[in-house]
Amino acid sequence: MDNDHLPPGLLSDIPPERSTPRASDDTIARPYRIGFVLIDGYALLSFAAAMEPLRAANRIAGKTLFLWQNLPVEGARSESSSGVSVRADHFIGETSDFDLVLIVAGGTADEQLMPRLIAWLQWLDRRGVVIGGISGGPLLLARAGLMSGEAVTVHREHVNLMATLAPDVACRQSRYLISERRMSAAGAGGAFDMMLSLVAQRHGGNLAVRISDWFVMANPMLAADPGTHPERQRHRDKPEALARALAAMETHIADPLTLGQLARIAGVGERQLNRLFRTHLQQSCLRHYRDLRIDAATELLTRGSLPLADIARATGFASPAHFSSSFRKARGCSPRACRNAARRGTPDSSASA
């Protein structure tokens, strides 16, 4: 099979620096081995989107082109966010001959387990194993110091936290990115396309097209495309000026813009921008902006154990005290009470301040 009939968006137009180097004949002759590290709370769809193209490749080709194993961080199983568990068939720290290891995560991990995971990933990196992440996986790789100087994509809900925890990492709004030693996908759709790209690179574009057809998928997307959910697209039913301001807010959570800056981006005056917000969203521009940041902070509070000071920075508050005061005003309870309530499985409103 060859790449002469690649569909738009697979490999033909991906910039050279993002393409995985052509595998040599001797490496293609043996199955390509992939390890999926499943962090408890991962999205099952993200895992399936990365794994199923490999299964389809083997079946369509009539031989084993890819082998994969599933690894929990601890224990014998990994549990997805939907409660479905996947049995481990390999374990972190064991001798392995992986060609690629992908971290599939919802963005958080048990802090007590992180040092062991990071040490293992760093060991793999020294051995020349390609390392990647899906959804929140790239965030964990950045914390391990494995994304420094790399361009990376991550699920949009983790973009601001990535900017806070790894300011030296170039975070891009793409479905997926591939470099010589790193791979990242922003979510399930990007993971599917990323694996098709891997299949095409190793075994030709025709096989990748057949896999896409097998799953009744539309044309694979370009890695260089900004994804199917750029912020502007999410507000296309609103007036253009309002959509511009909303898109700017959602991409500037950690570094809030002023009303004047938002108005300039929207192309209207400050009063007109406030009128648009009150007409369509029933609140002022800056009130809506604050609520977006509080929503982002609530997500970080309830999905992990990140210190409050880091959450404050990641959501654009000047200090932990300012963050706590704003959060209490918006939610009726302190950030700490909100986190404790989430851990108990009770609503925020039931938590005492």
Question: What topology does this entry show?
Answer:
Blueprint: H1 25-28, E1 32-38, H2 44-61, E2 66-72, E3 77-79, E4 85-87, E5 100-105, H3 114-126, E6 130-135, H4 137-143, E7 151-152, H5 159-165, E8 170-171, E9 176-178, E10 182-185, H6 188-203, H7 205-214, H8 240-250, H9 259-266, H10 270-281, H11 285-303, H12 308-314, H13 320-331, H14 335-344
Parallel strand pairs: 1-2, 1-5, 5-6, 6-10, 7-8
Antiparallel strand pairs: 3-4, 9-10
Helix pairs in contact: 2-6, 2-7, 5-12, 6-7, 8-9, 11-14, 12-13
Q: Describe it for me?
A:
This protein is of the alpha/beta class and 353 residues long. Helices cover 44% and strands 12% of the residues. It has three domains: 184 residues, Rossmann fold, CATH 3.40.50.880; 53 residues; 59 residues, Homeodomain-like (Arc Repressor Mutant, subunit A, Orthogonal Bundle), CATH 1.10.10. The chain has a six-stranded mixed beta sheet with strand order 2-1-5-6-10-9, sandwiched between helices. A two-stranded antiparallel sheet has the order 3-4. It has a two-stranded parallel sheet with strand order 7-8. The N terminus and C terminus are likely disordered.
Described by its quaternary structure, the protein is: single chain
The low-confidence runs, each spanning 5 or more residues with pLDDT under 50, are 1-22, 221-232, 348-353
- Count of all domains: 3
User: Strand content of the residues, in percent?
Assistant: 5-15%
CATH superfamily of the largest domain: Class I glutamine amidotransferase (GATase) domain
What do we call the CATH topology of the largest domain? Answer: Rossmann fold
Just name the CATH architecture of the largest domain: 3-Layer(aba) Sandwich
